[in-house]
Amino acid sequence: MTRDDRDINTYISTDRIWLEVRAKAGTVAIPALFLDRDGTLMEDRGYVSTPEDVVLLPGAASMVSAANRAGVAVVVVTNQSGIDRGLFGCLEALLAEGGAQIDAIAACPFHPDFTPGYATAQARWRKPNPAMVTELAVRLNVDLERSWLVGDSPRDIEAGRTGGLAG
């Protein structure tokens, strides 16, 4: 994958997962840095509903930029039940100000207490389950054994572990 191959492919999957793939998969598997959003890239301020509520954590942009320069795919995997509640915010513009780019994003809108008919089909996407990790790993040709997930909760770490990531 190269930055010149970047192409945005954004859609809601048939399972209603928001998947945004901004880079084409290469023929050689690459490592990836999977990141949680709230509490990892930006301050966890509850349900972000306006861009003004987005505040990057110190060092977030430089960490993502360093991964970009090293040829490591940067992927955000985030539980966002606020989508099912009609709330959502964005942080890509702030990262870009720091020279950082996200290669793909998956956002799970489901929550057992707020999603009508919540069942196994929805639960597989919500961390600690690994479906967001494994789906984007396939789309970007990620080498799971050289990839890591960074998050701020045990459910983040569990999604990486069960998704087959190195750490």
Overall geometry comes to: globular
List the uncertain runs: 1-6, 84-89
Sheet with the most strands: spatial strand order: 1-2-5-4-3-6
Return Rg in Å: 15 Å
The number of helical elements comes to 6
Largest sheet: 6 strands, mixed
Number of strands: 6
Distance between the termini: 22 Å
Beta-strand share of residues: 15-25%
How much helix is in the residues? 25-40%
Describe the protein's architecture and organization.
This protein has 167 residues and is α/β, with parallel strands linked by helices. The protein has 6 helices and 6 strands. The chain has a 6-stranded mixed sheet with strand order 1-2-5-4-3-6. The longest helix has 10 residues, at 60-69.
Short description:
This protein has 167 residues and is α/β, with parallel strands linked by helices.
Task: Explain the layout of strands and helices.
Blueprint: E1 9-12, E2 18-21, E3 32-35, H1 60-69, E4 73-79, H2 81-84, H3 92-97, E5 104-108, H4 120-123, H5 131-140, E6 148-150, H6 154-162
Index terms:
6-stranded mixed sheet, globular, 6 helices, 167 residues, disordered N terminus, 6 strands, alpha/beta
